[in-house]
Amino acid sequence: MREVYFIKQNKEKWLGIEQVIQGKIKKNPDDLSSLYINLINDLSFAQTYYPKSNTTVYLNHLSSQIYQKIYKTKRVEENRLIYFFRTEVPLLVHQYRRYLMYAFLFFTLFTSIGVLSGAYDKDFANIILGEDYVNETIENIKKGNAVGVYQSGSTWGSTIGIIFNNIGVGAKLYIYGIMGGVGTLFALLSNSVMLGSFQYFFYDYGALKDSARGIWLHGVFEIFAMVVEAMCGLILGASILFPKTFSRFNSFKKGFKDSFKIFLSTIPFTICAGIIEGYVTRHALKMPLVVNLAIIISSLAIIGFYYFVYPSVVYKKINNHNHDAVL
User: Fold this and answer.
1) So where does this one cross the membrane (predicted)?
2) Is 139 exposed, middle or buried (0-12, 13-18, 19+ CB in 10 A)?
């Protein structure tokens, strides 16, 4: 069958499924399951005869959306919150995984700009970090306490302030995406350049090792979450700029809904980062190096697995289950 005829034959059905996904047409769980199985058959046919076609990409996307609709509509035995983190967010991260890659590429580029700027302009750190902070940190380095700035204030007071500040930064990275993603990139540029110049500043004063022992205790969760929040902003921006088969408004609604769920998933990591910074980082140089490394590596393993590895695991598991169900 020619692809044009295949599209013409099924176009109305697919548009109807879009209406269901958008909530304009209500279906019970059994009807949704029938639609899904029918759509999977179309997808299998397209994958066989038009493997590199946009039709196949479209049907794959539609199948993912209707599947999520089924599992949101039917009752799930597990706790809703557990389902959110265990299944819903990983599926969304997998669906938008290229935006996570874009966010990390921009983060790496912008951080490198900060490092190079600090290397070629010795006053750059003063401009970015502030003279008072720089002078205080230099004095701490001379005293052999590179992370001294984290030892001021009470533990619980610092923790609360840090958590709210980091959530605020993450919210800006996300919400600024409404400006077509440009606002998100600008916010990411500002924070990444600051990080790059900050790290080079310690390198320049021979305290990079000591600073890393402290900063990355909380920095792994904090910075990784920041990049995921930038990913959410890029998704939001793309939903406005590239509506695809949806109207621009419906594309925005869908993009906002999906990206907001991913953004919410970063909150626990941000809170953990604040707790570590408030309670643990101040003791970084008194701790055995092996403890520092254990916290840093385990933090990286946890958040890296959740956003890079686990989404593919969930997606493959569900796809295999669906394939078996169809057979």
Assistant:
1) 99-120, 173-203, 215-242, 262-280, 289-309
2) exposed
Q: How far is residue 170 CA from its own chain's centroid?
A: 10
Which H or E run includes 135?
helix 131-142
Whether the CB-CB separation of 72 and 27 falls below 8 Å is answered with no
CA 88 – CA 318 distance, rounded (Å): 11
Could you give the CA distance from residue 297 to residue 312 in angstroms, rounded to a whole number?
Answer: 22
Which own/partner pairs from 16-25 qualify as long-range (CB within 8 Å, at least 24 positions apart)?
17/62, 17/66, 18/62, 18/245, 18/246, 20/66, 20/69, 21/62, 21/65, 21/66, 21/69, 22/246, 22/250, 22/254
pLDDT in tens, 246-277: 788 888 998 999 999 999 999 999 999 999 99
For the chain, count helices (H), then strands (E): 14, 0
Cβ proximity of 213 and 285 under 8 Å: yes
pLDDT tens by residue, 123-148 = 888 888 888 888 888 988 888 888 88
Which residues does 274 contact at the CB level (< 8 Å), separation at least 6? Answer: 159, 160, 162, 163, 166, 218
What is the per-residue pLDDT across 75-109, written as a single tens digit (0 to 9) for each?
444 577 888 999 889 999 999 999 999 999 999 99
Sign of torsion, CA 169 171 172 177?
positive
> Which structure tokens are listed for 280?
């643990």
Taking alpha carbons only, the member of 261, 104, 279, 255 closest to residue 178 is: 255
